């Protein structure tokens, strides 16, 4: 301590409390004075509150010792933290430790109470951090350090330092983006989420117009998105999409992207066009009919140079290839080739191989040359002979007429 007069002038310094906590100064002239602490005991906060006292100008006999204060207190610091969930509700059961700036553990096992409060006292001046060591059940451990400082001096009793009034434990969230095979978002796909034991966590999660499926409120652990209903006209993709909610994160965890391209496919089928000798035939034209509705869904499908006809973008169902035009020089076949596009597949479904479709060559009938029967040959030449005689008669008549004129 030091002692100052009422003008603030230092009268005496380096006054140290003894083992009984006493600080004594003597040799003071009458007047008003103050004790002022200049250095606190080790591990305590300096109390800057001045302690005033007066030395009387008169006294009967020897003046008595003036007691300036019989309870001048040095305090230690205290701090607290309030624990909440993401909706602002208090969380009990979170466990913390407090470390100093050298990361030495000062105290551990500090547990949040029913109002979410974690408190520590008995702290010397210095810099400290609250560190969560165990999250409340069902929440992600928040590894963010919450720093605070115990001041080295205070006037009278120091206030409790509020390190944080909203230290949040979060739960996990995840999303999946649903597309078709061309990268366009698909709405209307329905999913469930199961944990690693196969236990249902949530169902009826539906992709929105952007193809997004989202779930939140997940405790740390391993999970899977499983499609339970494909968008209309698409094949159910039975592939599981696994993801993990980490058991610790610094502050608010990011949404886990389980998949940004989970695809629903449509079906496809392939037919090979051949002759009856096995030659690949191009130029055949087919249509595809939905046999359940007797409805044409694709037409104008032509076989290529390898004889292949492909039908794409087919929704699940039963179909048939029907020939509309045969290759040049071949007979149109009345045969149909049926096939089925399945309702579900793990990831991309395989092309349905319908098999070979055979065309037979056209048969052009040859004309027969007929020989005349017996007695027919003379009859055939009668008209020709008559015509010759007729022409000869005209010639003779013309000649005679010419001679008469001479």
Automatic annotation (TrEMBL):
Keywords: Cell wall, Membrane, Peptidoglycan-anchor, Secreted, Signal, Transmembrane, Transmembrane helix. The keyword Lipoprotein does not apply. The chain crosses the membrane at residues 381-398. Residues 368-402 form the Gram-positive cocci surface proteins LPxTG domain. The keyword Electron transport does not apply. This is Putative outer membrane protein. Residues 1-59, 77-154, 172-253, 267-347 form the SpaA-like prealbumin fold domain. Belongs to the serine-aspartate repeat-containing protein (SDr) family. Coiled coil: none annotated. It comes from Lactococcus cremoris subsp. cremoris GE214. InterPro entries: Ig-like_fold, LPXTG_anchor, SpaA_PFL_dom_1. It comes from the Bacteria.
């Amino acid at each position: 301590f030091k002692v100052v007069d009422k003008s603030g002038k230092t009268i005496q310094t380096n006054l140290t409390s003894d083992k009984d906590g006493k600080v004594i100064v003597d040799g003071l002239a009458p007047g008003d004075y103050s004790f002022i602490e200049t250095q606190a005991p080790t591990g305590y906060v300096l109390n800057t509150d001045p302690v005033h006292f007066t030395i009387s100008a008169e006294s009967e006999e020897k003046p008595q010792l003036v007691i300036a204060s019989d309870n001048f207190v040095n305090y230690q610091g205290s701090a607290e933290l309030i624990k909440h969930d993401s909706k602002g509700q208090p969380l009990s059961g979170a466990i913390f430790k407090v470390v100093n700036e050298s990361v030495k553990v000062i105290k551990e096992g500090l547990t949040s109470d029913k109002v979410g409060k974690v408190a520590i006292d008995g702290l010397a001046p210095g810099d400290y951090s609250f560190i969560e060591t165990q999250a409340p059940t069902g929440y992600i451990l928040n590894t963010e350090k919450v720093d605070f400082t115990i001041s080295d001096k205070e006037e009278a009793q120091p206030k409790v330092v509020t390190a944080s009034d909203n230290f949040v434990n979060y739960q996990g969230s995840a999303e999946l983006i649903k597309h078709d095979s061309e990268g366009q978002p698909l709405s209307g796909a329905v999913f469930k989420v199961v944990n690693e034991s196969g236990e249902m966590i949530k169902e009826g999660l539906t992709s929105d117009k952007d193809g997004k499926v989202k779930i939140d409120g997940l405790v740390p652990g391993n999970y899977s998105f499983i499609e339970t209903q494909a968008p209309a006209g698409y094949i159910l993709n039975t592939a599981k999409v696994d993801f993990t909610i980490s058991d610790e994160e610094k502050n608010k965890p990011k949404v886990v992207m389980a998949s940004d391209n989970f695809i629903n496919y449509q079906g496809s089928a392939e037919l090979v066009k051949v002759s009856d000798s096995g030659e690949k035939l191009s130029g055949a034209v087919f249509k595809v009919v939905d046999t359940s509705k007797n409805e044409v869904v694709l037409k104008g499908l032509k076989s290529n140079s390898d004889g292949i006809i492909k039908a794409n973008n087919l929704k699940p169902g039963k179909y048939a290839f029907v020939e509309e035009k045969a290759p040049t020089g071949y007979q149109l076949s009345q045969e149909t080739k049926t096939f089925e596009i399945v309702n579900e597949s793990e990831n991309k479904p395989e092309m349905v191989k319908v098999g070979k479709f055979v065309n037979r060559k056209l048969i052009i009938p040859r004309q027969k040359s007929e020989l005349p029967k017996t007695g027919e040959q003379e009859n055939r030449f009668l008209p020709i002979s008559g015509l010759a005689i007729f022409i000869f008669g005209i010639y003779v008549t013309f000649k005679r007429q010419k001679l008469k004129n001479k």
